[in-house]
Design brief:
Chain A is built from eight helices and nine strands. By secondary structure, chain A is α/β, with parallel strands linked by helices. The two termini of chain A are about 25 Å apart. Chain B has eleven helices and no strands. The chains are: A alpha/beta, B mainly alpha.
Chain lengths: ~250, ~250
């Protein structure tokens, strides 16, 4: 199975209850975006899914997980090819060369294969990070604010590139972002993480493949407003919602 | 700045010092027997070359230096990586290493002579002992400070402790290791001089010691200049070599 199922997940950092009894599901091949404010536990949720932090509760995820971390987490001492080949030690030489070649092509960085990350632009480095995660053929790709440090133009290009990659590979993707616009543009579903728990969920009704123009439609802006309001729901109101998750416009 | 100007800026101070040295010594402002003119030192230097004493002293000192430097560095790097990444090992070994580190390296020479005699083994051991500590402590700090996200990537790739140390901790700690070895080179030059003063029949330290007894101040100064030049050359060659082997360091 390549989907994700999470039941009653809790994560503590010392005395801080970061994730509180979280439930979550993602279907095989689904693209789910998670939005939330800083410190609300978005990154921690991904870290728990990938088994990088201790947690309580039930998490069911495929064994083979790819993770794209914040802030260009690529190895500065390896070339572009070396970064993509990292962790492929168990493959034969032939397989490794073929995988690296395929993912260099995917990232559009064939001519930069011998360059070091410090010689590339932010967008190119993030493409390596994503290509590196895909090189292991993961069943699930977890992406933690991968475009947070990119300028608007590069970010737009990277979003289109990611949608193309996703269309080709159809991996289950959980994409954490601060940007509501980015979440709606990329995902099938947007989940709102508020104060350590999922409080709202919105189905994204726009057909694929998506074009940038969709961002300027009234429907897009209405949905953005709904997500924004959900994101800014005061903690006192959330306490009354309890564990009910209101599902937004389901017009898919 | 053009390369011609740079060369002038290097050569002019050297020529000025040589000229001042010659004048001060020749005008008997100081006792020329104690402070022979530069030309006399140059002549003694020429004699040392033609008689073959310089080459035999140099080769003896360089061999001991390189052997001690390599042994001390390799042990320092290996142990530093292990103590930097395996906390229990660091706790177990830290008190012993810190006590040994507090001993001035030159203080062990009498004991080393008792243990190893006056052959090359004693000198190599003394140099390795001195070099080990700065290399170990720098490697330890570098391995301890590996970015958490790099360790997570290794964990997700299924790497074990030793593979993580080899593929993540070692390259991450490389800038620290280089600093440690450069400090080690400086200490190695102190140790080669001191260890050859007592119980040696060749080497630059021996030459300096024997020329003092023979009252050949010109040869003594020539040997000191060679020792200084060798130190500077070793350091510069090391820096040049690290830039060639680790080109990414200059980029980050």
């Amino acid at each position: 199975m390549s989907g994700i199922s999470v039941k009653n997940l809790s994560v503590y950092y010392k005395d801080n209850h970061v994730l509180k009894d979280v439930n979550f599901k993602a279907q095989n091949g689904e693209f789910v975006a998670i939005v939330g404010k800083s410190g609300d536990g978005k990154s921690t949720f991904l870290h728990a899914l990938s088994g990088l932090v201790p947690y309580s509760g039930d998490i069911s995820v495929p064994k083979n997980i790819g993770m794209v971390f914040q802030n260009h987490a690529v190895f500065p001492w390896l070339t572009v090819s070396g970064n993509i080949a990292f962790g492929l030690e168990y493959s034969t030489d032939e397989e490794r060369v073929s995988i690296v070649h395929e993912h260099l092509k995917l990232a559009g960085l064939e001519d930069k294969k011998d360059k070091y990350p410090a010689e590339l632009s932010g967008g190119q480095v993030q493409r390596i990070a994503i290509a590196t995660s895909l090189a292991h053929s993961p069943d699930v790709l977890l992406m933690d604010e991968p475009y947070g440090s990119l300028d608007e133009h590069t970010r737009g290009n990277m979003q289109k590139w990611l949608l193309d990659v996703w269309a080709k590979h159809r991996k289950t993707i959980v994409f954490v972002t601060h940007s509501i616009e980015e979440a709606i543009f990329l995902a099938d579903r947007v989940s709102v993480l508020n104060h350590g728990t999922f409080t709202h969920e919105f189905m994204v009704p726009f057909a694929r493949p998506r074009r940038e123009e969709v961002k300027f439609t009234t429907e897009f802006n209405t949905l953005r407003k709904d997500v924004f309001e959900a994101l800014n729901t005061p903690a006192t109101t959330l306490a009354n919602i309890e564990k009910r998750i209101p599902v937004g416009p389901s017009r898919k | 700045m053009t390369s011609k100007v740079q060369k002038i800026l290097i050569v002019v101070p050297i020529l000025t010092i040589l000229a001042l040295w010659e004048v001060v010594s020749r005008t008997s402002v100081v006792n020329p027997a104690l402070f022979p003119p530069a030309s006399q030192v140059a002549s003694a230097f020429g004699n040392m070359i033609t008689s073959g004493t310089l080459s035999s002293d140099l080769s003896a000192s360089v061999w001991r230096l390189l052997a001690g430097l390599c042994v001390g560095s390799v042990i320092g790097i290996l142990l530093g990586l292990l103590t930097g990444r395996i906390r229990s090992l660091a706790h177990a070994l830290a008190p012993i290493i810190h006590i040994l580190r507090s001993i001035p390296p030159v203080a062990i020479i009498p004991l080393v002579i008792v243990w190893f005699g006056i052959g090359d083994g004693a000198k190599i051991f003394s140099i390795a002992f001195a070099v080990f500590f700065p290399v170990w402590i720098n490697t330890h700090v570098g391995a301890e400070q590996v970015q958490r996200v790099f360790l997570w990537k290794a964990k997700l790739a299924g790497l074990g402790t030793l593979a993580t140390i080899r593929t993540i901790a070692l390259p991450s700690a490389t800038p620290f290791i280089i600093t440690g070895i450069r400090n080690g080179i400086a200490l190695a030059f102190i140790m080669i001089f001191v260890s050859e003063l007592a119980g040696a029949s060749s080497g630059l330290g021996y030459r300096i010691s024997i020329t003092q007894l023979a009252y050949r101040i010109d040869e003594m100064i020539a040997a000191l200049i060679v020792l200084g030049a060798l130190g500077a050359l070793t350091d510069q060659l090391f820096v040049f070599g690290t830039r060639k082997i680790f080109p990414w360091l200059a980029l980050s």
